[in-house]
Amino acid sequence: MTQVLLFLALLAAQPALPKPKTVNLSADKTKLSAVLADLSKQLGVAVEDKRGEADAAVTLDLKDAPYWQAIDTVADAAHARVVVSPRDGRVSLVKGKPAEPGTVSRDGLFRAAVKRVTAAHDFDTGDSVYTAAVEIAWEPGLLPLYLETSPRTFQVTDEKGNPLAVRQEGSSLAPVDGRTTFLLDLPLPPLDRSAKAIGRLDGKLTAIAPSRMLQLKFDALDQLADQLQKGGKPAAGEDGMKCTITKVGLAADHWSVQVALEYPPGGPTFESYQSWVVNNEMTLENKDGKTRLASSSYVLESSSSLRAVLTYHFTAKDRGKAEDWKLLYRTPASLVEIPFTFSFKDVRLP
């Protein structure tokens, strides 16, 4: 009984995984421009018409549709293809045939699409090698840090549904911070020369991302410096994480603030060279409540899977007085592993 209660307690303590945004949108021969404006408003990300054609009339009915399903449905209704910018997540509908059936797969926050299949012949071995280039996209608000480069439980079948032997490759974590897409090259098993298509292509990947981002608020810089001088430890946090102000320097030519981040055990494990603070931001908010000043640089003093120490510097010449600026800090509530699957059917071969 004790073990069961402990298990339930640990389960309850696990941070909730982020969920996809949903869309409610009905259109009956409505102009595409109006549909995209409504879609962009609900998603919080611009969805643009770059088909270069006259405004189309579309009909659709979406109820609590996840992010990527909504975008693909609108694209299909407009007879267009979906293009995702790898840097800012901007989604565009471009002229061309919609994605072929079976080449797009969606699971929660992620969208996987087969962009191309290439064949190469090795004249030394006589083997023909196929590779599938798969684009992985995620909702722009997710801010993942790392993505597996090789799928787990990778399975491939031929046109008749017969399983094919897949070469198991070691998986590593690729940094994807600052991106909204990532292209994976998946090596495929040898296929019969007469094959017209791949029957099925299934796999599972994992991304490491913040469960959500927190905006922590602290006192004015002069008050923080005074608290530290008196032996205090200004701190803030949620969900078991803690951010402590450890140093405040208020020199005439620049200001500096050092923070120590601590997270409870149970999250992902990182190697010494893998940083998980790349999305963290320190800003100063003026007493007017409107003006903000971003840090000019930061130094990662030390880092482990559960703790990090960083020093942020402010060198703007118009800083004014320290008493006029409150400290804001943006950091993950926790870091989580988000598994997702992809499944493609009847993928044509070259």
Layout of strands and helices, then pairs:
Layout: H1 2-13, E1 22-31, H2 32-43, E2 47-50, E3 57-66, H3 67-77, E4 80-84, E5 91-95, E6 104-107, E7 110-121, E8 128-138, E9 146-148, E10 152-157, E11 163-164, E12 173-175, E13 181-188, E14 197-210, E15 213-220, H4 221-229, E16 235-236, E17 242-250, E18 255-262, E19 281-286, E20 292-294, E21 297-303, E22 307-314, E23 325-332, E24 335-348
Parallel strand pairs: 2-5
Antiparallel strand pairs: 1-3, 4-5, 6-7, 7-8, 8-13, 9-12, 9-14, 10-11, 10-14, 14-24, 15-23, 16-17, 17-18, 18-22, 19-20, 19-23, 21-22
Helix pairs in contact: 2-3
How would you describe what is shown here?
With 350 residues, the chain is mostly beta strands. 13% of the residues lie in helices and 49% in strands. Strands 9, 10, 11, 12, 14 and 24 form a 6-stranded antiparallel sheet that branches. It has a 5-stranded antiparallel sheet with strand order 16-17-18-22-21. The protein has a 4-stranded antiparallel sheet with strand order 6-7-8-13, with no helix packed on it. β7 and β8 (128-138) form a beta hairpin. α2 (32-43) runs antiparallel to α3 (67-77).
Main attributes of the structure:
4 helices, mainly beta, 5-stranded antiparallel β-sheet, 6-stranded antiparallel β-sheet, 350 residues
Report the portion of residues in β strands: over 45%
The best one-word shape is globular
Average the pLDDT over all residues and give the rounded result.
Answer: 91
Q: Would you list the SSEs in sequence order as H and E?
A: HEHEEHEEEEEEEEEEEEHEEEEEEEEE
- The tally of helices reads 4
